[in-house]
Amino acid sequence: MKTLCWVLAAAVLLAPAAASAQTQTPPPPGPPPSVSYPTPVERTLVNGLRVIAVQRPNVPLVAAQLIVKSGSETDPPARPGIASLAADLLNKGTKTRSALEIAQAIDALGAELEASAGFDATRVEVSATTPQFGRAFAILAEVVRAPAFAPAEIARAKTQAISNLQLAYSNPSTLAQLVAQRLMYGEAPYGQPAEGTPTSVGAIARPDLERFHRTYFRPDNAVLVLGGDIAPEAAFAEAERVFGNWAKPAAPLPALPRDKRTAASRVVVIDQPEAGRTAVAVGKPVLRRADPAYIAGVVTNAVLTGYSGRLNAEVRIKRGLSYGASTSLVGRRDPGPFVAATLVDHTKAAEATQVVIDTLASLVGQPAGAEELKPRKAVVTGGFARSLETIDGLVNQVGTLALYGLPLGQINTFIGEAEAITPLKVQEFAAGYLQSNQSVVLVGNAKAFLPDLRRRFAERASRIEVILFNRLDLGRASLVRATGVAGK
Amino acid sequence: MNLTELFVGRFLLGLMLAGMLSLGAAVRAESEAVPLPPVQFSERTLANGLRVLLVEDHTSPTVAIQVAYHVGGKDDPPGRSGFAHLFEHLMFKGTANTKPETLDRLTEDVGGFNNAFTSEDITNYFEVVPSNYLETLLWAEADRLGSLVVDETNFKTERQVVIGEYDQRVLASPYGMLFELLDSKSYTVHPYRRGVIGNPAELNAATLEDVQNFHRTYYQPDNATLVVVGDFDPVQANRWIDQYFGAVPNNSRPIPRVSVVEPKQSVERRTTYYGANVPLPAVALVYHGPARSSPDRAALDVLENVLSQGQSARLYRTLVYEQQVASQVSSSADLREQPGLFVVYAILNAGKKPEQARALLDGEIAKLQQAPVPEAELAKAKTQLIAELVRGREQANDRATELVLATLVGGDPRQVNTALEEIQKLTAQDVQRVARQYLVPTNRTVIDYLPRAMPPAGPTKKERKSP
Predict the structure, then answer these.
(1) Which residue on chain A is closest to B236 by alpha carbon?
(2) How far A93 CA lies from chain B's nearest CA (Å)?
(3) Assuming Cys at both sites, which of A235, A248, A274, B262 could form a disulfide with A226, CB separation 3.0 to 4.6 Å?
């Protein structure tokens, strides 16, 4: 019955507005534009640093991104948050300059300098106008190679990180994503909270940060991308100038953490009675960024997400359960997560969970036809093109391809590959990757939806775990704080 | 080396390049100068008066489309503040040919986006889409220019939305009313004193006829400017523009223009406001400034930068970092089509007195008047302003906005190609001169913006009632 309703709703949604004799309709789009982004060229320095140059001289700006191919996945299980805190501290002082002096130098150059850690990598980037780039680039090299990790700055960054976590935990949607990550990956590195927990961040000490930096920040574990108004030869010369004497340590690189994702799925309720609404997240680990099926995954995700995507159509437009519902697919070195999420009134949480799961299943039972697929592919290709409009965006995309060992030419083939995804490919992807073993999390006022949840998911009712918010510990795969530990 | 000559030379060369069809190598006159190529735009006016500016650029397979109407808050009819802004909302409702929110579907569903803003002087609608949707969006923009449905239902629904926006932005936001006071306390007769968002009483008093009348007056081809920047063939684009926009008839009624001139201020004015939800006191110094088209614009931008851009700027260093009197400081050269404002304000730390902050702000302003800005500081300001200009050229939509503002608020689209030279040729004496000319007490209004709980020192002043 649900299925029938869906089909009717889709017919209403997707049928073109009936045009009367007087009214005009918008002219259709022309053929997709041909795309030609500059071809990246590369060279490896003697110390092992891979350097990629991508020239686009339309505006006098140059951007550089140094990617260290290690991030939060290297955090020890007992102390997550190290890579993230280290990234926060890179531009807060070096062996020769204070945090304030770095800020003043960057301001005087009209430049921008930022650092951040993800699971697979730490990225440090700088951009400046062409004449100022060389000096700004030297500051990037300085913060990458010789951060001070000064105790006063560490203390300040830890305070900031802990208040950010408290803010995050007070938001049911953010908390649901963090819990979903634990459910999907368990003890594996992707299960750990990248920003740590208040306890783990509090415990991080200077030697942890120095060890992370010493172990992974080395030329043979990094990729440097320079782009914008700079010729490849000049880019290589700049790389040689500031990174040429960056010594490669004799010790071999530690092996990457193994992918140990859990296979068992869980259904968890975090009981947060004071939450304004209930956040629902349904997810599972899907596939590697380098998997050939990834682009079919991106298109499948687009069929589900966005204002006119299937999930929002079901949750918001058709049922008015929520202001919005969306899905995401993240490409990583090891299989990254797919998550569908929404935020609803507590009393509607069980219904919303069921609608989310049914909508994922609908991609197999009522596959998207060519008409439905066309605008969703346009969302993918249009979004990709806009992401490359800026030099920062171009450098970032090239860096992502390099990080995951993909051909750099994909920057010019991606749009064609996305356009070539057929309805059958989307159906196969949904059937193969999105259906079974989903983990489910609800964060909200449990008593308002638990009976309904147990009734709707009767076959899994005995496995529904209910965890009180003040017993939650994201530092543990069990999610429950060890008994006998007092305080926060 | 004679710097003045060099800059004049670069300036002329820039203009010559702007007139050529293809752009050669960017000029690199000196090692430090940023080689910013001029924006190559074509310009024409259709028979119905629509002005069209096109910039062809195939860097990215996207296109930015903007339609700017030369009507803003200052043009609202007397007793009907907020009409220009109300129209921004109505333009997303249906037309004779489309359902409400069609623009959203035509942009978001194809991987693009759309939005709009209303200022004191203009109302600007914009979208960015993959370039093969250019014709679709030109049709949609022409359609809402020509056939917008202004009916009772749309009017009443959107009026409620706008009043909700007023409640949220002006009443609920702790410093929302401060930004209304900047205009309402410094202009005495010019309509800029009414602000843009209007007020619920005047919006509620409006009739559908008022609204339709406003629409017929200002939403006409000869009051609109179309700017397209991005990946398109100009011959084809011009054909579509003629086909869709050219078909919209122009209404011949004259467009009223604001001719009121704000008289020169001759004595300092002071005002105090007490608000219920103000967490910390704020003080503002509001000076009258020139119009955006003034040759003093670049020097005032430098003044703004030196005072408050980044943590190395003067106000931040003195009030926030050293004296810790303020938690936040800001200055802004808010220049407009007609003479605008130069605003300096500080939000204080708990327990600090407005007079302490005013004294420090006055001290910093006095320093700028007494001595020229040191060369290194001037160079930093120029570098930051030029970098900002360059970053604004990266995306098609930003370039389109720059052209719209130069054309309608600055009065000349060619300003986009003179801005760089104007910053480069500035001297420390220019900056000192504008500080002495504009930032004087007789030219300003001082606003103390205080928590209601804070006991007034002198005679009680009544709280300004929410309109």
Answers:
(1) A30
(2) 16
(3) A235
